[in-house]
Amino acid sequence: MSNLEGQPAEVELPVDTDAAPCAELLEGRDVPLGRYTVVRRSLPNKSRRTVGAWCFLDHFGPEDVTGTPGMRVPPHPHIGLQTVSWLMSGEVRHRDSLGSDQVIVPGQLNIMTSGRGIAHSENSPTARPPILHGLQLWVALPEGERHRAPAFQHIADLPELADGGTRIIVAVGELEGARSPAEVHTELVGADVRLAGGADIAVRADFEHAVVVTEGVARVEGVQVAPGSLLYLGANRDRIRLEAEDGARLFLLGGVPFEEDLVMWWNFVGRSHEEIVEAREDWTRGADRFGVVPGGEEPLPAPGLPTTRLMPRPRYRR
Ligand code: MN
Q1: Which of 44, 102, 234, 312 would bridge 261 by S-S if both were Cys, CB 3.0 to 4.6 A apart?
Q2: Neighbours of 83 (CB within 10 A)
């Protein structure tokens, strides 16, 4: 998915604490995604830019796409990140400039590594189920990996954990001994959790964690969380307590705190103003760096740059 804001602003971050255990409920914001859809964006947030290397989180739907265009995200570029596409309902067709053409359905993962540059499109297939509901996440690539060649991985079979009424799919990284085959470049976890009652999930104490609820209402470490906000839990925890009397579904994010300062603008994750300007110019002039997405759709033009310099920013304001 793309950041389709016409004038994406840099995100200002307030004062932060360290990574001690905490429970901060961070409000998401509604962002239009093209003409047809509004998404709830939880990352980057006013008070948190990243959770581990997770640097972007949009929650879309559930939305009835019968008789609508559904998801329409034309070809657009990325640098410096991986995109993680996750569905709770519906189908999305991914095409990219490597030639990948892959529909995903719930329970499967599409993970695209932009490295130094890639372009992709995401659209609802012509024949599709009525309800579209999912998450689009980005993972920042660390310095040693961010200029690598682009790649795309589709994983149809992911490890599942079941305990009582709880079912967990480990989409990315490792949780309670179950490891996703998704190729990632920092230590992190992303897991879909369906709760029927209560559960204690064992987590790594050196990770910071956060939870978004995608269906129902859950209590996470005693804090009520509903769709639309992100509960940031800090680090130095061995377990996370989850409860949902009437059932709920959520996505758990975690990772080793990402200590590199990032410049995030539009669909680019970099380290300097100049890099972002160069990526924008490369996209605008159709440079080989990004390639061509099959399908013949008109590519998305880059928005204008802000009049001020883009500044590298830490995961929280120092
Ligand atoms: Mn995208």
Answers
A1: 312
A2: 24
Q: What is the mean pLDDT of the segment spanning 53-64?
A: 96
Where along the chain do its domains lie? 24-255
Q: pLDDT digits over 105-140, tens only?
A: 999 999 999 999 999 999 999 999 999 999 999 999
State the distance from the centre of ligand 1 to the C-alpha of 66, rounded, in angstroms: 23
Asked if residue 258 lies in contact with residue 280, where contact means CB atoms within 8 angstroms, the answer is: no
Give the pLDDT score at 38.
81
Distance 77 CA to ligand 1 centre (A): 7
- How far, in Å, from the CA of 3 to the mean position of ligand 1? 7
Give 87's contacts (C-beta < 8 A, 6+ positions apart): 104, 105, 106, 107, 108, 132, 133, 134, 135
Give the other-Cβ count within 10 Å of 76's Cβ.
23
Q: pTM for this one?
A: 0.93
Q: Which two tokens stand for residue 80?
A: 């410096």
- Beta bridge partners, 120, equal 76, 96
Task: Give, as residue ranges, everything with CB less than 5 Å from ion ligand 1.
Answer: 1-2
How many Å lie between the centroid of ligand 1 and the Cα of residue 2? 4
Question: How is domain 24-255 classified at the architecture level of CATH?
Answer: Sandwich (2.60)
